[in-house]
Amino acid sequence: MTSKFDLSAILQGEYAELIVKGIETTLQLAFVAWCMAMAVALLLVSIRLTGNKYAERLVAGYVSYHRNVPTLVQLMLWYFGIPTLLSESTQIWLANYSTEYLFSVIALGLCQAAYFSEDIRSGLRAIPAGQVEASRALGLGYVRSMRYVILPQGVRNCLPSLINHTVLLFKNTSLVMAIGVVELTYATREVENYTFRTFEAYLVATVVYLAISLMLMGLGALLARHFSKAMAR
Questions:
Q1: What are the average pLDDT values for consecutive 10-residue runs of the chain, which has 233 residues?
Q2: H/E/C letters for each residue in 47-66?
Q3: Staple 184 to which of 26, 138, 173, 214, CB 3.0 to 4.6 Å?
Q4: Does the keyword Nucleotide-binding apply (predicted)?
């Protein structure tokens, strides 16, 4: 086993290519899952705003499940459990494809949607009730009231939480290595197995995760300042 520290051993050739591929897969997975999570979250918030108590209970159950069951367990359920509920012909059809990525997106997207929906709902609830009446008194219709008064405040209120949970989603992509998706953590483990340079391999992964997480948080801070300035005008 080699003990001398040497980053160059893993930052060149096929090992570097494997790590780069892992980073690309991680970013792609995080982006697609984020888009899915945001779309589902907006749908959940819309359902809760209808005032239908049965629909609200259904959404509350959805949120409770995804926030209280470990993400890894949800991922395993989707990958190993859900296919067994499908017809035999469908299972055979799925066996011809690599479904690891698909189920990873679904599991991460649906799980994160629960967090996003609560962030958005909390942001909207923090707006004083008199804001809507005040905007109507100024002659703004419903659409213009939502566009110029309610939504800007709602986004500003929920943005910090959304950014934090976006970072959480990015970090949770490492869980999909459990079902064979070659993302950054999986690639790092493979490099470590081939080179026996555990410290160097995981140091690179640590730096990449930290750098991207800090960039996301920095982007969130910039957006927060932008909305604060926009609201101050």
A1: 76 93 98 97 90 92 97 96 88 82 96 96 82 73 71 83 96 96 96 92 97 95 79 61
A2: HHCCCCHHHHHHHHHHHHHH
A3: 26
A4: no
